[in-house]
Design a protein that fits this description.
The structure is a single chain. The chain is an alpha+beta fold and 385 residues long. It folds into 2 domains: 143 residues, Rossmann fold (3-Layer(aba) Sandwich); 164 residues, Gcn5-related N-acetyltransferase (GNAT) (Aminopeptidase, 3-Layer(aba) Sandwich). Helices cover 26% and strands 27% of the residues. The protein contains 11 helices and 16 strands. A 9-stranded mixed sheet has the order 8-9-10-11-12-16-13-14-15. The chain has a 5-stranded mixed sheet with strand order 4-5-3-6-7. The longest helix is centred in the middle third of the chain and has 18 residues.
């Protein structure tokens, strides 16, 4: 245990109005404009998440600088560059992806856009991902990160970040004026600047009392444009017969899920629908909502008599599908797409598994090269709805 303290002094204004206001109540300005803070705490022992909490002006930022240095709150994120280009050059691409995914920033379109175009929540996660590149023996300090998002998003982010910090054995200290994130962060210790009190929670393992509620609803295709910019494929929905669902938090739609008929119907065979366009708004990622949404929607479609499949090339989706016992792996194909010149209006050539054929598309548009796709089948319960 060690004593930590600071004294914050604001210089009194000598303006006529300030002096008259102080004199009207005979205020001792030297005392009223001085804030003294003293706490005895153990922040040297191993920890993953520390929380310094208190109202604005209670000394959170000054205390952090006093303990970890003036540069501890230096921001890494540059607004003019894509996030994926801001990691140190010595890190591999896979390491950068792991850090971004670990803090819940899983949308590839968000990685390649200038940081200034992202939401407050996305920039906050990006900042933490970049801070994760510090050496393992350095404490990561993030100031007022929950103040830039709404309270539900703050709780989702808190859960995601504490989980990743523990997984990677990093030490992160978060500064916040909000107390509602405590049980979502599960901090190992808390310094409360309002009460000037330290609480050691390293041995405390309690269940979270608050639960966030999400529900699945059938929606129209008109909600897709709001989510298309976060998906890695075309911003257009598949042609033909489709079914669309939305994931909601209260009245706000935070996710989108589509089912499309990719395979021609065959007489006497069960009709197949493929799950696709699975998107959860980036502010809510890292909470496992993507798989919960696709599982709930697939149960509904299975209950309507369809055989439900899913084919994709997303690495995070592959990892989630492999862990989920409601899906069974069926096949994997490597798809090569290469533009080889004009073969007619609106068509170019593609090679799939060694075979050449025509594919619709713009002649001057590039294609994804050397893409592996994965096919899974839903084997979970059916739900009548």
């Amino acid at each position: 245990m060690q004593d930590y303290g600071l004294t914050l002094v604001s210089e009194p204004s000598k303006s006529f109005r300030c002096q008259k206001a102080a004199n009207s109540l005979d205020i001792d300005t030297s005392k009223k404009l001085t804030h003294t803070f003293q706490v005895r705490a153990d922040i040297e022992s191993d920890f993953n998440i520390g929380l310094i909490v208190g109202a604005s002006g209670s000394g959170k930022t000054s205390l952090a600088k006093e303990i970890w240095g003036q540069d501890s709150l230096r921001l890494f994120l540059r607004e003019d560059l894509p996030i994926i280009d801001q990691f140190p050059e010595n890190l591999t691409y896979d390491t950068c992806v792991a850090m971004l995914s670990g803090v819940g920033l899983t949308s590839v379109p968000c990685w390649i856009r200038p940081a200034a175009t992202l939401s407050n929540g996305q920039r906050a996660r990006a900042e933490i991902a970049l801070q994760m590149t510090k050496n393992d023996d350095e404490v990561i300090v993030i100031d007022e990160w929950t103040s830039v998002v709404d309270r539900t998003v703050a709780k989702v982010m808190s859960h995601c970040i504490q989980k990743f910090a523990r997984k990677t054995h990093k030490s992160i200290v978060l500064l916040s004026c909000h107390y509602d994130v405590i049980e979502w962060l599960r901090p190992d210790w808390i310094i409360d600047c309002n009460k000037q009190r330290y609480v050691d929670r390293r041995r405390l393992r309690c269940e979270r009392a608050e639960q966030l509620q999400f529900d699945l609803r059938q929606v129209g295709r008109e909600t897709w444009p709001y989510f298309s910019k976060y998906h890695y494929l075309s911003d257009r929905l598949p042609a033909g017969y489709i079914e669309t669902f939305g994931l909601f938090c209260g009245d706000d739609q935070i996710g989108f899920q589509c089912f499309a008929n990719y395979v021609p119907d065959r007489t006497g065979k069960q009709r197949i629908l493929h799950a696709n366009r699975i998107v959860v708004h980036p502010d809510y990622c890292g909470f496992g909502l993507g798989m919960r949404m696709v599982n709930a929607a697939s149960a509904v479609m299975a209950g309507r008599g369809y055989r439900v499949m899913c084919k994709f090339s997303s690495a995070p989706m592959l990892a989630s599908m492999r862990r989920d016992d409601q899906w069974v792996f069926r096949s994997s194909d490597r798809l090569f797409k290469q533009q080889v010149g004009k073969v007619g209006r609106g068509f170019s050539m593609k090679r799939k598994n060694g075979r050449i054929g025509r594919a619709g598309g713009d002649n001057n548009r590039g294609f994804r090269l050397d893409v592996r796709t994965y096919s899974f089948e839903y084997v979970g319960a059916s739900l009548t709805a």
